[in-house]
């Protein structure tokens, strides 16, 4: 009898293993795969961030970032006092001469202004250097003539005034 009791007690102690359902198995598998995928994505993001920082960190301020005002647009029919044009050209660094024959020079007469523009690379295209003749009637610009081509021009933009620049300034830490 003792053997039978021992066998019965052992069989009572062993609980039958439950078999997991397919749904629970798949759920566990998806959770494990999701965790692995998340870890992979985090490692990949850290790696890519390091690569981007390495490529751009030293070149951020290699060239100074320049800040410009709006460009002065010149067109026939525009109200523009000659004094305002003179001040704008002064701010742009144009030289006032008796005969404008080089880029960056201008000459004023009673109702005419001759400007030899410098040209400028705008975001939407390049404005070439031109020899312009502006004819005024009072404070109204009557004609804008490109003297090289000998024809009227619908619109001309002068380069904008540089109002600032951002450059990298090395910091010194004093202890």
Number of domains: 2
Tell me the strand percentage band: 25-35%
Strand order of the largest sheet: 3-4-5-8-9-10
Mean pLDDT, to the nearest integer, reads 84
Say which CATH homologous superfamily of the largest domain is assigned: Penicillin-binding protein 1b domain
Any idea of the CATH class of the largest domain? Answer: Alpha Beta
**Which oligomerization state do the chains in this entry correspond to?**
single chain
Structural class: alpha+beta
Q: What fold name stands as the CATH topology of the largest domain?
A: Penicillin-binding protein 1b fold
Please mark out the parts with pLDDT under 50 across 5 or more consecutive residues, or reply none: none
Distance between the termini: 90 Å
CATH architecture of the largest domain: 2-Layer Sandwich
> Which radius of gyration do the C-alpha atoms yield?
39 Å
Helix content: 25-40%
Structure overview:
This protein has 175 residues and is an alpha+beta fold. The protein folds into two domains: 20-55; 65-165, Penicillin-binding protein 1b fold. The chain contains three helices and twelve strands. The strands form four sheets. A six-stranded mixed β-sheet has the order 3-4-5-8-9-10, with helices on one face. A two-stranded antiparallel sheet has the order 1-12. It has a two-stranded antiparallel ribbon with strand order 2-11. A hairpin with a 4-residue loop joins strand 9 and strand 10 (151-152). It is rod-shaped, with a radius of gyration of 39 Å. The mean pLDDT is 84.
